[in-house]
Amino acid sequence: MKFNLKVVRLLHLFGYPPTRILLAMKLTAFFLLFALVQVYGNGYSQNINIREKNQSMVHILELIENQSNYSFLYNKPDLKDLKGLSLVLVNANIEQALEECFKDLPLTYKIFQQTVVIKRKKAVALPQNTLPLERTIKGKITDDTGKPIPGVSIKVKGTGTGAASDQDGNYSLQVPDQDAVLIFSSVGYLTQEVSVGSQTNLDVQMQTDISSLEEVSVVVGLSNKQTKRSIVGAIATIQTKELKQSPVANLSNALAGRLPGLFTVQSSGQPGADGAAMYIRGMSTYGPNKAPLIVIDGLPRSDGNFQQMDASEIESVTILKDASSTALYGIQGANGVIVVTTKRGKDGSPAINVTMQNAVQQPVRLPKLMSSYQNAIFQNTIAKNDGTNPIWTDEQVEIFRSGSDPYLYPNVNWFRTMLKDEALQQQYNINVNGGNQMVKYFVSGSYIKQGTLLNFEDESIFDIKNKFDRYNFRSNVDLKLTKMLDVQVDLAGRLEERVGPGSGFQTVFDNINAMGTDATAIFNPNGSIAHGGIKQLFNQNPYALITRSGYYNEYTNVMYGTLSARHALDIITPGLSVQGMFSFENNNFKGTYRKANYDSFWYKGLDNNGDEIYQQQNVKSSLSTSGSANITRYNYTDFRINYKRSWNQHNVSAQILGNRTFTVMNDDLPYVYQGVSSRFLYNFKDRYYAELNMGYNGSENFPGNKRYGFFPAFSAGWIISDEAFLKSNTAVDLLKLRGSYGMVGNDKIGGNRWLYLFDYAAGGNYYFGTSPQGGGGFNENRVGNPNVTWEKSAKANIGVDASFFNNSLQVTYDVFRELRSDILTVPGTIPDYVGVSNVSPRNTGKVLNRGMEAEVRYRKQVGAFEFFTTGQVTYAKNKILELDQPAPRFPYQDLRGYEIGASLGYYSLGYFQNQQEIDRSAVQNFGATIIPGDVKYLDLNGDGVIDPFDKVPIVANNVAPFVFGFSLGGSYKGIDVSVLFNGTRGGISYIGPTVGSVLYLEAWTPENSATAKTPVLHSTSNTWQPSNFWFQSADYIKLRNAEIGYTFPKNMLSRIKITSLRVFANGQNLVIWDKIKVKDRDPEATNGGNVKYPIQRIFNFGVNFQF
Amino acid sequence: MKDLKYIMMLCSVVLLLMSLAACKKDFLERAPSDLITSEEVFGNIENAEDFLNNAYNILPNWFDKPENNHVWALASGTDEAEQVWDADGDVNHFNTGNITPQYYPFMDRYFDLYKAIRRINIFLENYNKIPEEIGNSGQQVSRKQRLKGEAYGLRAYYYFELFKMWGDVALVKSSLDFSDPNVNKLKRSPVSEVYAYVLANVDSAVAILPAKYNSDALYGRMTATAVKALAARASLYYASKLFNSSNEESRWAEAAQKNKEAINFAGANGYVLCTAPGSTYSAYERVFQDIKNEEVLFTRFGVNTTSYYTNVDKITESNGFGGDGGTQVLQEMVDAYEMKDGKAINGSGSSYNDQKPYENRDPRLGYSVNYHGRLWKGREFNMKNGGLDRITWTPAPNYYIRKFLAEEYNLFTYSNYRYRPWVLFRLTELYLNYAEALNESMAAPNSEVYDAINAIRKRVDMPVLTSGLNKDQMRDKIRQERRVELAFEGHRFWDVRRWKIAEVVDKGAVHGVVISDNDVYTYPSIETRSFNPSKNYLLPIPQTEMDRNPNFIQNPGY
After folding, report:
1. How many Å apart are CA A440 and CA A427, to the nearest integer?
2. In total, how many domains does chain B have?
3. Residue B302: pLDDT above 80?
4. Which residues in B lie closer than 8 A to residue A391 (C-beta atoms)?
């Protein structure tokens, strides 16, 4: 390995980790680096003195290098088998030295700037062929964005003939005949075989190989890259290409079904607030923070920074699942880590990439409501079953049916009327990347605008359009300041604006939810805002809330940047470097709320004179203004020492890192972290791997003696396929066994700070005096827990990676087990008569989480047709082991042993089918008398009465234990198609009917007793007891994403100076298959009765071009 | 040369790191330095007073559950009223008998009372740290002394509340250390001990506190009069059947004596029955409308504030007047008011006409209940079908509460709001207590019993009791008078329990009124109530509390 040292050092200059390059020594790939910009002058006079006998070529080259400004670039095998070299040079310049050195060798050399590239002489390679069809094939090789790829190896299948592409991607070689097949291969790209036929010009576009286990490197945390082959932890990655297939504003919604081990649950579609909750490997704690840590370019960032990122800025998203990859984050890593890597500049002239997209958003589903006529019959049926007088007379029911009096007897479907069928979304991105030996840059700007579904915007008296707007900017610059010093300067910013009605979306939807079709008309006969039907008043008229309640603007401005410098210290010992990083973030939020009330009138029909009677309900007010502001300032500093070296077949790398984080949020005392992380990686023969990852860090939130925690993780891997017994097996390309075990922590304890302190606080009040005056109060505030500490997680993982048949089939399988202990839990064993409240939580909870993940990828190319499919499944199931509660009176009410989210409720036995059944069963005393068709509950303790002692743990949890994803796609001559399905299984949701839901049309009656969907129409709280009666399976399969695209052929584009052009159409949340009883909402957004802002289906059309 | 350059660079990096590390001794030491310690609270009499003030918040009010957001009145849990809005809701548990250790209305009052007791215990334990107020002489009692008296008075009140609801309870006399494992092993002390502790606290308070405050700013604070009234009420409960199953007459005698003492003490300090009508309100109504009334011994703040959950007007007024119509009066309550001539409506010779049911009735009916045709805020109540005040969505009694409400308050515009405190103790109750205790303690009622009741009746122009009643007849009269006089004030619910008559009055059908278009009055049943005498007289100890303490024995039946 020593032998390649110079190359390694050279390659370091370009930010490529040596391992990657060593595996793929393609010299020509780097010609490009030097040809583009004339940076280094060559006016050095060199004095080279050498006096060596019978030395290796490499040794000689090192000597020359040490005495000159020149580096050597060569392919390792080229220098093999050379006989010993003797050389004497006195005060020679570089040309002389080289000439002398190479004169008798089968090598040629060429000088580019300060680099000498050495190659074997061609003459050795090419056999002569005299057949008449032999000819020269020329062509250009480009990547999928149209950039030329230098250094691609081209071989004529079945012969020794070969060539490589030059810095412009051009190649030429001799082929023997028409039947010749060319094999194009290059690191990071899929190998292609192309028949020559009669062509003499053959352009090839290489496809990025995103899944190559051998070569692609992955960022594993703290911005360390590792080849996939060498990774022994449990991680999963996706690239920008897949992210960009989802036309979503919030990045968290682009991940569903793509990363094994990741659970996502989207519960709202409100623009600007539609992020999905993310859980890595399900939930392992019932504590307040179950969310993974977000790390962007090596630094922990807030969730919003991830969710509101533009997909075009991102190179890859990786999730770190087990202890080996998360231990570095110590007390922040227990819930897993999401690592985002942004794009960086590549060598080459500026490549300008433009994407423009326009989309239509539609609610996937809306509640289905009874008409007001059906509603009137429904209400009368309730009254009949309750034994009270009908609510509506037959005449009134008839008015509802005929719709003859739409003011007193309205029929308004508020969901349908207040929401538009569709809203528009526009997205634009322009990014430029390029660079040279000294500077590389990636610069990107994006804009997204999302309209909302709220109707009647045009009628807003404030002339306001509800929307979500976002601008993203990013500039990533890499500087090579000296041969040994690399500097990165990254700046990113984001501007968001949210505009909504003064009452807020929540209130609008709450009111829409609360209204049956008969609630009120929108307007009164005189055009004023209506406020009730013939019988009842209603709280707020959603139309007025949208158009007259004022408006709000919320601005979020985020700016963050990182300055990082890395200095090689090979001078001290080869492979050593130091690196420092400083980052800041400023997050400013300002909300301005202008609210107003509006005039509304309850229309009550005509009086004796025929005049309309109105009772005023709301009174108009002018706009009142209030505001809120939040500021977060964050900075991060670290210093690290890296070491990487190989001896014989021992490869070692290590990193020690010290860091500090300092965050100020509004007026809070600073939140700070400080710690040391270290990584020690070792492998033997690239076959046996061992890693030790350690975090030792602490946060300000714990008492002095409990502040720092030590979190070690050990992991190991074995590439079985490299062993002799498998090496010869052509079907198996890779078989790797890996395992890890370690400790990680979770210090997010729900915003409560200083739990170890005892103090008093001002608060409360009581009024005294004949003109009552409050004097303020004091309370016992914190009753501290001096032993408070973070959650601890012991994670174990065993996994297998395998690939077969030329890497066309890849399989990954992991099983894991996590024991989360010390979960902060409010003590449940302190008797009430102690009278103490605010007792700080104790670290008493324990949860066990177990599961597995499997992923299969298959990829095949047949001629011009390329096909891939991916399937993945994750299973995670947790169990509460301890939660600081006394043993209940009846052991069956103990929540220990059940899942997170379990609570006590009655066990439903369905409906009472007849009076005899009621008489025979236990007494259910929840209000009104039970009648046939009411819900029957299990009398668990058999005491003849249903009371809370009959409750058992029931679990409603919309984070399902099973999630799976399945994708399929192909491409043929520029056309590409892909689909992604994902789904969950085993999730249970509480789904109550919305007000006036059509579900009530299928209420229990003696006739439909077998198929009824709700209990008999009857006003009784019996129906609404906490029970599993309203639990429904939240299982679903979604056609989450589909895309079709066409890439125009190069020859069409070259004339208009465009390197590539692709048009595409894609969609999100296209089809849903699920089991919920009434398809009135997205199965993901199910917990609860109300329907929030519906989740959206998106149809998107776009164009991407590069020049 | 090159080497030197690198060594210099390296040195500077190391120096930089060292200087970073030296910045602060412990970078993670960020805890607030402005913690308010026990010394700061009790080292300042202002703060100490504020700390104790919060103990007042748990005083009962209209809902008997003041700090929780519930819109029902305790009256709806007994034969006074019905919860109409959210009819199946919380208070209805009392009417269905659905009371279990796992859930019942105001279960959390158990914890709330003990929280207040802990506060008082902490206050008294730190009492010596409190400095005397400097200056401000000429007070009836020093501020520091007064606070101590208030603490004792409140502790007495809260232990009375505890035994009233749960019977035997844990007697916690100091702030307990929850980390001590023995804290989970306390036993429930018998009511006799709890009662004795109430009296002991009363004595401590009376020894310190003035009978009433000269300063209006101190109005609403515990006084010797209030504490004596508390002892009087507690003694009456302690003598009642629920806690005195063997009917020890000595307890009744003690109750009579304590009530007499309280009446005399109040009288000596200027408290008299309110007999003078105001400009808008009658004398009886004034008791609940005045901020400070001559017969009111103790009030709590906040039953009628503009906060939704404590706004009696909003909760009880009909929709037609902008309220929620949440609590409505039962026909049973309306029927309890006598005729103007002192006869019961179903008594012999009664002039009661069930088609003109509100004519010639005890004036307190009109003061306390809004019924069909009654004038209010400028219009007559209309309970007919389609009438503004008729609730249609659920069976409803069709009577609204009038007592406590401010007629000038406009709920549509929220204008003309007027603050009214909630009456906790008034002289009239002591009269009723005294009459009851005295009657029970002797073979036949004496003139003092008559005098006490008649004084109350005279104030509202009702005829005096006919003489010659025997003990049982007198008991019925006293209970009748108590029910009517103290209607909706939070007494009846507990009275029917201590008398152990809930199994009769809180069981079976309850009624309302329906008035047809042609003015025909009918009185349908609106609900059937149930009450289980084998368990419901006391509330169950919350199950979580039972689970935490193996030595606790649950009240019978739960």
Report:
1. 26
2. 1
3. no
4. 392-393
Q: Which chain B residues are Cβ-neighbours of A831 within 8 angstroms? A: 170, 183-184, 186, 545, 548-549
pLDDT winner (highest mean) among A857-861, B298-302, B509-513: B509-513
Contact B549 A831 (CB under 8 A): yes
Task: Say if B262 falls within a structural domain.
Answer: no
Mapped onto helix, strand or coil, the DSSP state of residue B319 is helix
Contacts of B31 in chain A (CB under 8 A): 669, 700, 754, 757
Task: Identify all chain B residues contacting A783, using CB atoms and an 8 Å cutoff.
Answer: 178
In a domain, B380, yes or no: no
* A425 to chain B, closest Cα gap in Å: 42
Is residue A559 predicted with pLDDT exceeding 90? Answer: yes
Task: Kindly state whether residue B198 falls inside one of the protein's structural domains.
Answer: yes
A225: closest CA of chain B, how far (Å) = 25
Contact A832 B544 (CB under 8 A): yes
Inter-chain touch B53–A535, beta carbons under 8 Å: no
Residue A927 and residue B96: Cβ atoms within 8 Å? yes
CA A804 to CA B453: how far, in whole Å?
100
Distances from the Cα of B127 to the Cαs of A361, A780, B44, B144, B178, in angstroms?
A: 67, 15, 11, 9, 22
Residues of B in contact with A780 (CB under 8 A): 118-119, 122
Report yes or no: A1020 at the B interface, CB cutoff 8 Å: yes
**Residue A747 pLDDT grade (very low, low, confident, very high; cuts 50, 70, 90):** confident
DSSP single-letter state for residue B337? S
CATH number at residue B8: 1.25.40.390
What's the ipTM? 0.91
Whole-structure pTM value = 0.77
A825-854 pLDDT per residue, tens: 989 999 999 999 888 888 999 999 999 999
Beta strands in A596-731 (DSSP E): 600-606, 612-618, 624-647, 650-665, 671-684, 688-699, 708-719
Q: Select from A66, A602, A832, A844 the residue whose CB has the most chain B CBs within 10 Å, as the one to mutate to test that interface.
A: A832
C-alpha to C-alpha distance for A72 and A208, rounded to whole angstroms: 29
* Model pLDDT, residue A214: 42
Q: Which residue of A has its CA nearest to B413?
A: A619
Using only C-alpha atoms, chain A has a radius of gyration, in whole angstroms, of: 35
From chain A, the residues in CB contact with B43 under 8 A are none
Of A384, A375, A378, nearest in space to A410 by CA: A375
Question: Is A779 touching B (CB cutoff 8 A)?
Answer: yes
Model confidence pLDDT, tens digit, residues B451-497? 999 999 999 999 999 999 999 999 999 999 999 999 999 999 999 99
Question: Using an 8 Å Cβ cutoff, are B82 and B76 in contact?
Answer: yes
A605 touches chain B (CB under 8 A): no
Contact B427, B271 (CB under 8 A): yes
Would an 8 Å CB–CB cutoff place A393 in contact with chain B?
no
Minimal C-alpha gap between A424 and chain B (Å): 42
Q: 3-state DSSP call for residue B98?
A: coil
The CA distance from B73 to the nearest CA of chain A, in Å, is 18
Least confidently predicted of A576-585, A878-887, B13-22, B267-276:
B13-22
Residue of chain A whose alpha carbon sits nearest to that of B53: A766
> For position A294, what pLDDT does the model report?
93
Q: B32 and A669 in contact by Cβ < 8 A? A: yes
Question: For the segment B194-237, what is each residue's pLDDT rounded down to a tens digit?
Answer: 999 999 999 999 999 999 999 999 999 999 999 999 999 999 99
Residue B249 pairs in a beta bridge with none
- Is residue B99 a part of any domain in this protein? yes
Range of the domain at B192: 4-209
As a whole number of angstroms, the distance between CA A876 and CA A847 comes to 13
Mean pLDDT of A1089-1098: 86
CA-wise closest residue to A376 among A391, A365, A364: A391
